[in-house]
TrEMBL record:
PROSITE patterns (UniProt xref): LD_TPASE, TPR
Name this polypeptide is given: L,D-transpeptidase
Pfam families according to UniProt: YkuD
Organism whose genome encodes this protein: Paenibacillus chitinolyticus
GO biological process, one term: regulation of cell shape
Membrane-spanning residues: 120-140
Residue spans of biased composition, Polar residues class: 144-170
A GO cellular-component term linked to this record: extracellular region
Pathway: Cell wall biogenesis; peptidoglycan biosynthesis
Sample GO molecular function, one term: glycosyltransferase activity
Statement: the UniProt record of this protein carries the keyword Glycoprotein: no
Keyword entries, A-Z: Cell shape, Cell wall biogenesis/degradation, Glycosyltransferase, Hydrolase, Membrane, Peptidoglycan synthesis, TPR repeat, Transferase, Transmembrane, Transmembrane helix
Similarity comment text for this entry: Belongs to the YkuD family.
Superkingdom, natural source: Bacteria
Length: 544
């Protein structure tokens, strides 16, 4: 019976989360996060963080510490920084408790015993310092040999294990403390190069490379990042020009204009990335690709009981399962690799058990490249791009169609309905994606269409109707633009039709891209063919 599945639906059903085939749980359940870990995702950063917070409130500090450490095993994640901060707060609390115990012990013991204990402790400290010097000397020799064996780049032949005399590194840079920045591994934390306002690109690059050599010399196997900022106003104090210090607060890199990156898992040379408004084309494309996949994941989950696909390949199926025409390549490294966890090696990180599309899909990029994608919207060191679903806006007054994805805006001219059959205002979801859809009149819908219900955004060979009001209510786009738009708009994306587009926002042509260039650049070479035509004999009845 057609309506049987909805006949006995429970009023609480919309508030339930499906964790496996036969188990639904409510977010209002006090044991919700415990059940998520037990039945759905043992590594869920959100669940472990919430459990850690609860244990901390209950005074069960060992249990809280366990959950916080579990959160930090997943990097990047939105909860990494808070968990890292909590771990350090617990450590400080433990130190404080130990100090109190020590004072009580000293008060309870005689002065003679205290003198003996102090002498004994001093002797232990001296012995440990001697052993530490011996170990460091051996480690330094081993590090030099290891660097040579692992093929250091020829441009870094003069590496040293400690900052050289006269280096611009501050003393605290040589002993960076874990609590100074959350969100990255303690031994791979970023640094900040401070430059005077008038510093040119050539000098900035020279200093970045020199300081990167020093960092790589400490350990050629670790990823390194140095951000370059030009000081302004009161920040530009005498003696600060050319100084390199650890990044203590993510907001310090908000004004970064460049970053030097060394990622040995990707390449054996250091590279400089330019950030912000001047972001390279590949960074803009990766932002677009990230949001394209995430939008498709959201639509898939809406159609499949809130569950993401086991593989991204399930988004690329024959019509009507073509949420995407292809899985975009990650454009910074050019990789199409999909990994279950972050390693900075390029491609995508996909976690189908994640709670939302933004956490499920992230670019798998090392620090500096990722920073170029995130900035300037967020300077957080966490390796993620904020989730902003792909959307299309149509201005009937200006006859313009704007595609917004990952902060980039791409434009096409559009035709709208006649005065007697106007294109309706409103926000519509893409229900169907069809190549060469058949209508009552051959070719009426052009090369491709995005079905919105009674109307569609579709192609047309009638170039004269673009930029005018001649349709029966649909949005018309030239066939060439429509083919590119089709590739960049996933199933489920929102299309807003309005009299005019609100002022403000990014300008079209981000990164020097247009619709066709973006679609071509994101399509991976050798992408599998997908049948996106409707079955033979299918006739569509959009207004036209």
């Amino acid at each position: 019976m057609g309506g049987a599945t909805n006949r006995f639906s429970h009023p609480l059903e919309p508030h339930l989360v499906r964790v496996n085939k036969n188990l639904y749980i409510s977010r209002g359940d006090p044991q919700y996060f415990d059940k998520v870990i037990r039945y759905a995702d043992k590594t869920s950063p959100e669940a472990h963080f919430r459990m850690g917070e609860r244990a901390r409130e209950q005074g069960n500090l060992p249990r809280a510490l366990f959950h916080y450490q579990e959160v930090m095993k997943t990097y990047p994640s939105p909860f990494y920084s808070d968990a890292n901060r909590a771990v350090h707060e617990l450590a400080k609390r433990e130190e404080s408790d130990l100090a109190g115990v020590r004072k009580e012990l000293e008060a309870a013991t005689g002065s003679k015993f205290n003198k003996f204990l102090r002498t004994f402790l001093y002797a232990l400290i001296v012995i440990n310092l001697v052993l530490l010097v011996i170990l460091l000397s051996g480690a330094g020799n081993k590090q030099t040999a290891s660097a040579a064996e692992n093929g250091k780049p020829s441009s870094y032949e003069s590496h040293v294990s400690q900052p050289q005399e006269g280096s611009s590194f501050s003393p605290e840079a040589a002993s960076l403390r874990p609590e100074e920045l959350s969100g990255v591994e303690p031994d791979e934390r970023p640094y900040l190069l401070r430059l005077s306002p008038g510093t040119g690109i050539a000098r900035a690059e020279t200093i970045l490379r020199e300081e990167m050599e020093l960092l790589i010399g400490r350990n050629p196997q670790k990823s390194r990042v140095i951000y370059a900022v030009r000081l302004t106003g009161q920040d530009a104090l005498p003696g600060m020009d050319g100084q390199v210090v650890p990044v203590k607060d993510p907001t310090e890199v908000e004004g970064a204009f460049a970053a030097a990156q060394y990622a040995p898992s990707l390449r054996k040379t250091a590279e400089i990335t330019y950030l912000g408004e001047g972001a390279p084309r590949a960074q803009v494309l990766t932002r677009i690709g990230t949001q394209l996949i995430r939008t498709a994941l959201g639509a898939y989950a809406a159609d499949h009981g809130g569950k993401f696909p086991a593989s991204l390949d399930e988004l690329v199926r024959d019509y009507p399962g073509n949420y995407l025409s292809f899985v975009p390549r990650e454009a910074v490294t050019g990789s199409t690799r999909v990994s279950p966890s972050y390693d900075g090696g390029g491609g995508w990180v996909y976690r189908p058990a994640a709670a939302d599309a933004g956490s499920a899909l992230t670019p798998n990029l090392p620090g500096a490249s990722l920073a170029g994608i995130i900035l300037p919207a967020s300077a957080s060191a966490q390796a993620n791009v904020p989730f902003e679903p792909v959307r299309v806006t149509v201005s009937k007054r200006d006859h313009r169609l704007l595609l917004t994805a990952g902060g980039a805006v791409l434009e096409a001219r559009a035709g709208i309905g006649r005065p007697e059959s106007p294109t309706p205002d409103g926000t519509f979801a893409v229900r169907e994606r069809v190549i060469a859809p058949a209508g009552r009149t051959p070719g009426v819908y052009g090369a491709a269409a995005l079905g919105l219900g009674a109307i569609a955004v579709h192609g047309t060979a009638d170039a004269a109707s673009i930029g005018d009001g001649r349709s029966l209510g649909c949005i018309r786009v030239g066939d060439a633009d429509m083919q590119a738009l089709f590739a960049l708009v996933p199933k489920g994306a929102a299309i807003r039709i309005a009299g005019a587009i609100p002022a403000g926002g990014a300008s079209p042509g981000s990164g020097g891209l247009d619709l066709a260039a973006a679609a071509a650049a994101l399509r991976p070479p050798g992408a599998p063919a997908v049948r996106e035509q409707a079955p033979a004999g299918t006739v569509f009845h959009w207004l036209g």
